[in-house]
Design a protein that fits this description.
247 residues, alpha/beta, eight-stranded mixed beta sheet
Length: 247
C-alpha cells in the first residue's frame, strides 16, 4: 500500500468527512457475533472509533505512524503499525473487517488473501468510500474544473476506482445487496479549502510545481461559496461480502 497521507495526518483528521452513524450501524447489523473487529488502513481511526461502540475489541492498522499518532483513542481500540497485506493476526480472528477510502491503494491479490486468512468463516468484509462531493451549481463548476483539469493529471492511477464508485474493484466474496447512503454537511469556506488540501492530487501538484493549485481557484471559489448555501453532499460507496469457501 502506498503511504501518501503521512505528512497530512493533522489536516486529514481535521478535514476528512466522517461516515454517518447510520451507515456504520447498517454494516454492523449483519454481524451476529460482535467480539472482535478490524479496521485496516485506519488513518485517524474514525471508522475504528465508531466500531468500538459495538465490538468488545477493535484492532486498527495503518502503515503511517503520523496517522496513528493522530488517531482517536478509546480503551477498546488497539492501534498497530503494520501493512494490511501481511498482518500478525491469527487465522480466523475477526468477526468484521472494514477498509474505508483505501481499498484502491492495495495489491488486490495480497489483500484478499489476507482477508480470507484472518476473517472468521461467518464474518463480514466491508469496503467503504466516498466520491467527489457536490454543492451549489456555480461552486460545482469551479470544483469540477479543479478536480478534472487543474489537478486531474496528478491523481494516482488508482483513483479511477473511486471515480467508478468502487464498482470495478475485484470483490471475490459472496456479495450482499446494500442500501444506498450519502453524507450531507454545511461547510465553511475554510473547511472546503482544508478538504481540497488533503487531496493526494493537490499534494502531487505542489511537489511538481512548487506552488499550491488551490490558489488558482481560491478567490473565485470563495466568492461563489459565500453566495451559495454552503451545503455539500458526498455519495457514499459500500460493498459488503462474506467468504467464498472455495477461494
Amino acid at each position: 500500500m502506498k503511504d501518501i497521507f503521512s505528512k497530512l495526518a493533522v489536516e486529514y483528521s481535521q478535514f476528512r468527512p466522517q461516515y454517518p452513524d447510520e451507515m456504520i450501524a447498517y454494516i454492523v447489523s449483519f454481524v451476529e457475533n460482535k467480539s472482535v473487529a478490524l479496521d485496516i488502513a485506519t488513518g485517524n481511526g474514525q471508522v475504528a472509533h465508531k466500531l468500538s461502540c459495538y465490538f468488545d475489541t477493535v484492532y486498527a492498522t495503518d502503515i503511517s505512524e503520523n496517522q496513528l499518532s493522530n488517531a482517536i483513542a478509546t480503551d477498546n481500540i488497539i492501534y498497530k503499525k503494520e501493512a494490511a497485506e501481511n498482518t500478525t493476526f491469527q487465522n480466523q480472528q475477526f468477526d468484521l473487517i472494514t477498509v474505508a477510502q483505501a481499498i484502491h491503494w492495495f495489491d488486490f491479490d495480497n489483500i484478499y488473501k489476507e482477508i480470507y486468512r484472518i476473517l472468521k468463516p461467518d464474518g463480514y468484509f466491508a469496503v467503504l468510500g466516498y466520491g467527489l462531493f457536490s454543492t451549489n451549481a456555480h461552486s460545482d463548476k469551479i470544483i469540477q474544473n479543479y478536480y478534472h483539469t487543474i489537478v486531474g493529471p496528478y491523481w494516482d492511477k488508482e483513483r479511477i476506482y473511486l471515480d467508478e464508485n468502487y464498482e470495478t474493484i475485484p470483490f471475490p466474496l459472496e456479495e450482499i445487496d446494500t442500501e444506498k447512503f450519502q453524507n450531507d454537511f454545511t461547510w465553511s469556506f475554510e473547511q472546503v479549502i482544508g478538504y481540497l488540501r488533503t487531496w493526494s492530487a493537490t499534494q502531487h501538484y505542489i511537489e511538481s510545481n512548487n506552488h499550491n493549485p488551490i490558489d488558482i481557484i481560491h478567490d473565485e471559489l470563495k466568492d461563489s461559496w459565500e453566495l451559495g448555501n454552503r451545503k455539500v453532499s458526498f455519495p457514499l460507496l459500500l460493498r459488503i461480502g462474506k467468504l467464498k469457501q472455495y477461494y
